[in-house]
Amino acid sequence: MSRTLDPELRRALAARIRYYNDMGIYDFYRRPPSDRAGEIAVSTNQPESGEEMSPRKATAVAKPVAIQGDENIFDLIALKPEQSVSDPVQALKIIREDLGDCTRCVLHKQGRKQIVFGVGNPTAELMFVGEGPGADEDEKGEPFVGRAGQLLNNMIKAMGIAREQVYIANIVKCRPPGNRTPERDECETCSPFLMRQIAAIKPKVVVALGAVAAKTLLAMNASMMQLRGRFYDFRPAGVRSNDPNWDGCKLAVTYHPAFLLRDPRQKGEAWKDLQMVMKELGMKASAKGAE
Ligand code: URA
């Protein structure tokens, strides 16, 4: 299958996206792949053999164009509104305003009290990404403030830094009812805003807490055992970097603090993940993990 997008199609898509951008629309969602995923048919104007291409004379010929499933054309084209400002505080404000009183997925009508946007240092070198707000977070409007949050705070402290130095957010910004796992479409609808937050903060390392965060950020399906223990080169999907000094960051996967509360024997493994992160960030590793 060809990896390149037909130049004519690319131009047409760019024009269409610019048209939407002019109307203030920046977010686009993919339909779930159909059984013809990765292949679409378009009409392209092709010259008859030996003939010059002319818009009037061109004959429309239906020609299948193969598009690599993972090729995100929006990466190539659309700049987000916050990308016109260099101050990350302002950029995050623009993203928050764009999110508004979000009703993009069903979670808005399933008992959420408020949107939990994210908290912390807008210029953080280190970001933690969890799954979604629980009851305490929904109540306070801040991620990781309940029991799992206390453990996350201890993990951050064990790294020799303070919670205020990092940025913390979730894949979904509204509490799933009964703390259920967010559905895939909810993650897909909400995560473009997180991707924009990451691009605005420009961290050196993102730590995905748990399988939902890891799978959504990396767009891959694998077990925690397969996902942990290494760094991934990460670029926020759907955001085209316009900063020559930031072309993505490293991403590491570790256990979700709520899982560690249920199975404290895995804390040592999580500490190994965090030590790997500390080494990457040039932080001095202490011998002791989070209690
Ligand atoms: N669990 C999460 O994934 N996120 C929170 O903010 C709290 C608990």
Derived structural class: alpha/beta
- Strand arrangement within the widest β-sheet reads 3-5-4-6-8-7
Q: Helix segment count?
A: 10
Q: What's the count of strands?
A: 8
Q: What is the string of SSEs from the N terminus onward?
A: HEEHHEEHHEHEHHEEHH
Question: In a nutshell, what does this entry contain?
Answer:
With 291 residues, the protein is an alpha/beta fold. 35% of the residues lie in helices and 14% in strands.
Description:
α3 (88-99) runs antiparallel to α6. The model is unreliable at 34-68 (pLDDT under 50). The strands form 2 sheets. A 6-stranded mixed β-sheet has the order 3-5-4-6-8-7, with helices on both faces. A two-stranded antiparallel ribbon has the order 1-2. It has 2 domains: 7-79, no CATH class; 83-281, Uracil-DNA glycosylase-like domain (Uracil-DNA Glycosylase, subunit E, 3-Layer(aba) Sandwich), CATH 3.40.470. The chain is built from 10 helices and 8 strands. It is globular. Helices cover 35% and strands 14% of the residues. It is α/β, with parallel strands linked by helices and 291 residues long. The longest helix has 18 residues, at 184-201. The structure holds uracil. Uracil binds next to α5.
